[in-house]
Amino acid sequence: MFTSKAEQHNIKAKIAASYDKLYSQFSSDELNEIGNYKISKFIGEGSFGKVYLATHKLTHQKVVLKTGNKKDPNVVREVFYHRQFDFPYITKLYEVIVTESRVWMVLEYCSGRELYEHLLKQQRLSLEESKKLFAQIVSAVYYAHELKCVHRDLKLENILLDGNGHAKLTDFGFTREMATRSQLETICGTTVYMAPELIQRKSYDGFKADIWSLGIILYTMINGYMPFDEDDDNMTKYKIVNEEVDFREGEVSDDTIDIIQGMLRKNPNDRLSLSEVLSHPFLQPWGAAAKEKTNKVLLKQRGGNLHFRSKHEKRLLKRLKHCGFDTGSIKNSVNKRKCDSLSGLWFLLQERDVASDVGVPKRTRSVLSVRKVFESSVNMVMDDILVNSPECVKSNSLKKIMSRKSGDQKIENQELPKLEQPNGVKVEELKDPKREEPESVNSTEVTNKKKGFLQRVSSLFRPKKHSTQGNINQPVDNHTAPGIQPLLGKRRHKTVSNESQEASIRNSLPATESADLNVQFEDKNNKVTHRVKKMKSHSSSEISKTQNGSDLQNLQLNESAEEILKISNNGGARRSSIVSQHSAISNDTYNSEYSTDAQSGFRSNNTQSSNRVNANSENLTATRKNVRRTLSVLSSASSTSEMSSRTDSFYDITTASSPMNMDIRSNYNARSDSQFPRINGNSPWMIKRGRSPIGRRTRINSRSLNRKFRHPTPGRAESVIQEESSLDENERASNLPEVAEYDSTEMAIHSDSETPSKGNTPLYTIGINHPEARPILFSVGRSMSDGSSWSHQHSDFQEPFSTALVRQPSSRNIEEDDYEAVIAADDEDNSLEDEEQEHVRSLVEYV
Ligand SMILES: Nc1ncnc2c1ncn2[C@@H]1O[C@H](COP(=O)(O)OP(=O)(O)OP(=O)(O)O)[C@@H](O)[C@H]1O
Question: Reaction catalysed by this chain (predicted)?
Fold first, then answer.
């Protein structure tokens, strides 16, 4: 109990200050967490929204958060289709978080970034690399096609590379199912990757259109420039429709020519099928292997056998179950592709285990993984369970591992990016990537072996640094080509910045550089400079407008080249064959298939700016760059016909709040279908403790030995801990030990109570790094008389603990004589017996 009024005032003041801090955090504009993900930096911006690098708090896995407006049909479409895909060469969609206005897609992080950037770096890819990557890309598309989905925006920018250099197809904003139709009408994609039938605005077979785009991709990978890419869009379109791709004589093998020509046949029905592409001699041995792998995945998936079959998965599942997770819910989430926090957790756990499958004995690592997840997810102590789990006992002693690994490590302070609200998220500060640490801990020297058990264990779960893997922190644009590097560096930087930043970068460039920030490749043989454009997906309602106002719809694409050129040249002078200033304008101009005038605001900004460019040639350079970078386009030709895809009934995507951040106690009643981990078949907070140490380290009577902590009855949802025994609910409630108040600091509210001044106050997690953090020593006991309630006492600890939950007491009239327990600081205190130690840990750390 508190010894003086002054102390009580002091404590009250601290609680009030913490409350204020919490309140201001709630009302802050800064955004640094979404669900279970901690945002670490802004990495790019697409047509639909911004993209951030983030860390999954429970597994420390890096992920990408891609945000979009909830009302944007393309965002809905992207989620709808993407979540159906579960394939090694398609970026994984782990989770979808829906907030009031935005959708956050949690995606697999591809540290190698875009294939486009890789190609810029290499100028052109070796045949071997091209084959390998292309086989992976084709297999991803083949997989999607087998699921009757067409991508419709295949391009270098939509193929990412993971840390192992594997291709990952992404960006399913224009995807469409083809199960119910054979022809599509909506014109969408990116001009230079578009099939002739789309350019001609005919109805088209989506599968065949994808195959054409793949042909463009392969050609570009091998040659380092695009087959149809003129500075003038009309010319590009003319060539797509009328001309054959050309190859440098003697440089390209017959197989290469054959496969590319096979994919780029003007008549869609003459094009190779993807199965044929994968079996083509050019692509061997990669193609055949990729095809086989894809067919296996498809077979498994169709049979509903994709998950939980491998030894590794079974082992992980077992561990989770052992720790009380509701594995049925996890399976359900994963199998149904719910993209909720459970399936996210599952996939990330799996990936982390696979990634860290080096060096640590399997059994131990598994146990530790599960332990860490559990610790993080419910913020409570699992030591009791894990230390005594058979796995842990069989393998290395956890204590030994901890004492080996807990070492004196200095953890750098982590700076968080400051963000605007989701719909206008803006990074004010970018963290130094080298200092990036997944843990949100402040600078602390951990020197004492006896310091926080959790912290020591937690240090074991920090992701290993894989020096061989692609590092996101490395600059992407270390272009090898002289002269290109500075240009790329600047352009790249600009790509992820806002318009004003772009303008300032551009202004700082010499005129020749700023003229076109697209990278130029010099073809040494032909002395012709080629370009690989980076195209930004966007749309407008102006598809038919060329830069000079001519209507492409009326343009006869089989007109003579002269005619076309005449139109083009009228449209504006080409500054040179190398650096085009004008061409991208109409090239990048399309409609959303749902586009209406009202909606055009969504994706038509680039078009509008393009038009402004035309109007004012002085602004052309700066504005064009925005337009130029990317384009994926979607015309409104058949908006109604394809609208039906919106009616798909998919939304069992979970909404925003992470279960881990929810008040787990308030879910007590629903625990049978709870998603939360359960311990020994009970709710997560019903941690079974051993026996309680009593009577100055003597034993308590047998009745209390089997008691468990649990949260209170529904009527007292805010209360903290209750014992479970054979007593009925009322008795349990009355047996709730009250926990003394202490400082409350960082987050993790575990109660819905509004203010700490109420009788039942919220619980807070106290962080070890808080300047005022100190542990609480609880003396817990009960009188020896039957039916007596548990009570406790608290006093200061000399040594800090990693975590303690505290609560303002509602009752302070506990009599000294009622106590019979003394709590020890650490499990290494040999003066306590095992069960007593467990009790101590569960009380001090778990409470
Ligand atoms: N899973 C990912 N891993 C790593 N980087 C990613 C990932 N997804 C997107 N990015 C990066 O984020 C940026 C924006 O991506 P996004 O897909 O939103 O736009 P985009 O493909 O550039 O444009 P658009 O949507 O118009 O096609 C790009 O630089 C991209 O490389």
Answer: L-threonyl-[protein] + ATP = O-phospho-L-threonyl-[protein] + ADP + H(+); L-seryl-[protein] + ATP = O-phospho-L-seryl-[protein] + ADP + H(+)
